[in-house]
Fold each of these.
Amino acid sequence: MSRLPWTDEERAWAVECLTAGDTYEEVAAWSGRTVVDVERTIALPRLSDRQREVLALLAVGYAPCEIDDLTGRDGARHRIRIIRALGYAVPTPGRLSSDEVKAIARAKGFENLKAFATAYGIPASTMTHVNSRGLPAWRLREARYAQA
């Protein structure tokens, strides 16, 4: 195993791997370093299997409610708060601007946002704030990738 000092790029890569749900052992194997070396350099606490699962799903773009549905277990939001408190940089799902939402609705052939929201099960209360806050991207995942 290597005894060379860590570069900033290696350290950033290791943190990114851990934040994506990989284990210390995996990062050590990929980097050619010992697990102890990785633990000392990164200095982030180990995560449970459930926490790593939640991070991995967040990293690929799932929202907390989708994670609960996919895994069949509740509590993704609570685990995300704990993971943040441990010092991990937790990825957050993106938001679409009102113009993007309207463009998707037009592309799907809807006359207005109300009809679009009804078709895709988006609460009317959520749609009333689209002009000021946009819309979480996960709410439109189905609409964006469904066949027109």
Note: Strands lie at 95-96, 135-136.
Amino acid sequence: MLFSLLQPLHSPILLPLRHFRCKCSGPDISFYRDAFARKMALAGIKPHHRIALGVSGGSDSMALCVLTAGWKSEGFSGKVDSSGYIDGLLGIVVDHRLRPESVEEARIVQERAMKMGIRCEISCCIWPDGRPKVGDLQEAAREMRYQIFQDVCAKQHIGVLLVAHHADDQICQGGKQIWVEDPTNQCTLFTRNRIRIALKNLSSSSFSSEMKALVSACRLTRLFIENISHKMLEESVSIMNEGYSIIDLEKLDPLNVDDLCLSRFLVMIVQFISQRQRPIRGSAMKLLLEYIRNIPCKTSLTAAGCYLCAAPGSKGKKIIVCYSPESPLSSNLLLSSFYCEEGASFSSVIEQIVKDAKFYSNRFVAESPSMPFLRAKSSEAILREAVQIKLISQSTYNTIRSLQMEEHDIFCSQNGVDEANELGHRARASSPSNVQIYPGQSYHFMCRFLLTWKLYEMKDGISSNLNEYNPISEADGKNLCQCCRITQEHGLIIRHMVDADWLYLAKLSESQTLNEGRNELETSNFETGHHLAMEHWCSSYLRSSVQTALQKLKYVPAAARRALPVLVNSHNLPICIPSIGFSCCPFLSIEAEFRPRVPLGGGYRSFL
């Protein structure tokens, strides 16, 4: 059903989905169940973990539902919740809202998943900039889909998301399940459809077996490369609480690292810092490889949503990788709200899954007799090596190369259209990142900083006898601090730090009295009858907060400062910069923790 949801409204292909039901006994799927259990173990996932499924309604996602439901029920003693659904299993149906029929189709898919004992919910896409253009329709829909998956999993405290891609429909046949085939999958407008159709037409028994062998070898090689990259991360990369990383080039020794391993290493870091899971294209990856191998580092580079430069005082032997707020697509990751706090137990579950996955993958790689393709620098080189080691025949090689050349010609003919669509997409995505946030909840800013706004929590060092000065009062039903007049029931604007912010802090530190600070904060409506002791205390707090912030800023490189979240008032002046401890009011308690949604090296790692 996936491509049915993505079909443009103006397309002539608006046929209803075709439904398939297996009327025969079907093949024995015990082999698939055993293979699925082995792959889940390899990924460090156990039946008691909370799991979400991306359900589109096609044979791939319905097969995933069959296998996951059976695996979880058997391994978890068939435990169900009070509603009769398998405990800890949630299906997510994404309605892209790109066709009129999608609402009813999403409901049908939801019902089918629920009949299998899987609790299932529908999430609808909202397109603030209007529906995507045809040229970037699939990519935009995919980004929206995975953003919804992340939001639902974060809200439900689910640490595992499974999505499916299938080679055939035997699992659904064996499980006697209904699935849907979308007629738009036959539309040759999209590359993946053309390739799928071409491979199906060429699918002889020998060709299919050779392709499966090639895919298996590539997966093994990828697993090996990821393991090597993880070791490189542990040995040469430091992650700072302010949201940037430092690469020690001497420990990394990039001149003696193969292209594939170094490329994967860079992808892990860049995607972790930017929290953008888009593929890093060939030209951007070439720039990154050349940059990191140029030792000592004397220049800077902006690529794939990140800014890279030499670390201060390192003489070019260390590189800073920080988020670039000016990069395109930033606004797509702007802000999401959590209505419940993430507990330590949830975090420990994720850490244990990652730990188990590394253990099993290391053992799996160690047991493999050989590792192909490690020196290959292109898809053509992989195919040539596959022929040399007799993984595929010369005829299969010729067939694949022919398909590649056909797609290359199509790509070149559409290049102008793609560039125009990309420019339009970038223009829409680079809108200002200012949004309003409110007290009493937690928010994820740019999928990187978890901001928590607590109400009326006194800071350390405030003596209890200050209560007699009544710093918090009720005025027209709005709780506010009588000294600095910050309303605790109204929101504040959050944005990235700019150069003027730390210059402003430096100017505030020169103020000798609270009155000067008040003027800078443009709070001219102060009442004049406050107790002098309260004013003196608030003035001392403000100066102390500014000095603490400036001291911490000395150790944050200027390039990395620009990614810090800043809360400002209606005049765009900083009220709170939680990452460096600045707050203009002792009763304004906002904390920021660098907690990216996707962990380092823990992106969309495919085992299934």
Note: The chain is about 45% helix and 15% strand.
Amino acid sequence: MAYSLKRDQAQFAEEAERLAKQAAYIAANPPADGRSVSGDITRLMQEAAFLLKRAVTIEAGLGAVGLLNAEAESTE
């Protein structure tokens, strides 16, 4: 489980960095005549939702590991 959490945390960091770059691109290229950003923002929101799902999964996994460790310590 710890390996899976480490992998998920690394993927989270990569995805968060990619999301930050997308947000910076949108900020640097605002709507203009002939340029719409609604599609860019929609993709950003979809990826943010996926990142949120990954964060919740990681947090739940960390909580489970904490409980397992507490259980193991209490039986020693």
Note: The chain is about 85% helix and 0% strand.
Amino acid sequence: MPMTPMRNMFLVLRTQTIRPAVRRTATSLVFRLFGLLIGIVTNAVLARSLGVSEFGQFGVGLTILTIITQLSDFGAVQAMTAEARRNPKLAGHVAGSGICIRLITAFIGIAIAIPISLFTIPNTNAVVLIVIAVCAPLGASGALIALSNARLRPEIGSALTLGQSALWMFAVLIVGFSDHPTAIDFAFAFAMTTALQTLITLAFYGRKSMIGRPTWAVARLLLSKSWPVGLLGLLVTSYYRVGGVLVIGLAGAHEAGLYTAAYKVIDVAQIIPSLIVVPMLPVLIDALAQGSMQLQRLSKAVIRLSVIVAIGSGLMIALFSDVIVRLIYGDAFGNSARVLEVLGLAFVGITLGYVGSTLCFAIDRVKRQIPFVAVLGVLSLMLQPWAIGNWGGLGSAYVAAATEIAMSVLSLTLCAGPLGMSFRSIFGWRYPLFVLIIVCTYFLTKGSFVIGVIVCPIVFVIAMLFLKLVGKHEGNLILRRKSDS
């Protein structure tokens, strides 16, 4: 039978397959997109039920919980993912030991964070803060997602996260449509849904016998691997989360509500960098075992693709900032749009910072980040009071954007050298030109919303294709022979 072009195409489809990790990541994307929609609905009901000031107080409670959770993790998830991937036989002990570490550090975090917050943050609701913050130990079960990530099964963690989001949305809808709901009512609903989700997570992994006995040897191994990441996370938290807490103390609950509304959008949008990073660490570990050239090739392609994703996402957030705020929160939160526009720039740095930090962890360069990030954190905290005092939440957003961009450049620079790469070898002249084109187009069309949302995406796509930013090298990460899988 003659080999027609159509038959050739079918033969290619039969001999090639979507890389399993990417296929599972696509499934994870579907779950996370549903989670994104659920998060939008949840935040909309919360904001409209509470009003600007009470929403700001509730947001501060969630911020304190997030700070405690990030500190209690102290790099455990990354360390658990890496060790479970390197030595699958230890996965059960890794799970048990990781949970113990998370529990102990969570209780320590509560003991420190709650008293400091109550005595140093004016305009806060003490009951809301305490009820939400004491949920931190329940988050210890979230470390088990590392086992799924190590097996290149990111969709499992996404499914569990989606379930938690759905439970929280139902709770918010029930409370929100009751008579005169308060921030305290939502706080208790949050605590109950968090406890239920913890039981579901423990039951899922326990049923599969994936939780083993904790051992001091494995715990010590995890701590030795995780402490640089944990310390780095502590420093990052100093400029990423504390800004929102400072706003309520320095500018009041109303301004904090506006800032919280904008930052909630950014928090939800972080499904985008997580989709890059979650399957990235185990794949990088495998590439590291195959040799420096394979690791360099993979790292370069990931960085390039991440730049496109980061700029495209940040651009969309900035373009639709006013629509997003008014659609989700209502006209009362209209002033949040300008804050969200600035945070769209911060989101570019957040996405690239995720990628750079993961690369640094994979090649054991996290310790080198610590002194630089410490300086960034101190500078950010020094600038925050001045910026908030002059421009409120918008000032805090400007500081956050500048710090996130600086952090992303720093992390990419630190990982490029050991990988045998330079910024010139990664980006050449095409990527700086691409950034310049997008920035100029955005500011030239900024005066008209209609022109901006039409012209900017078109220019983005045309520039990306004309400069050939996505080519065969990046495509090979997605399509590969079965024999290579």
Note: The beta strands are 16-18, 479-481.
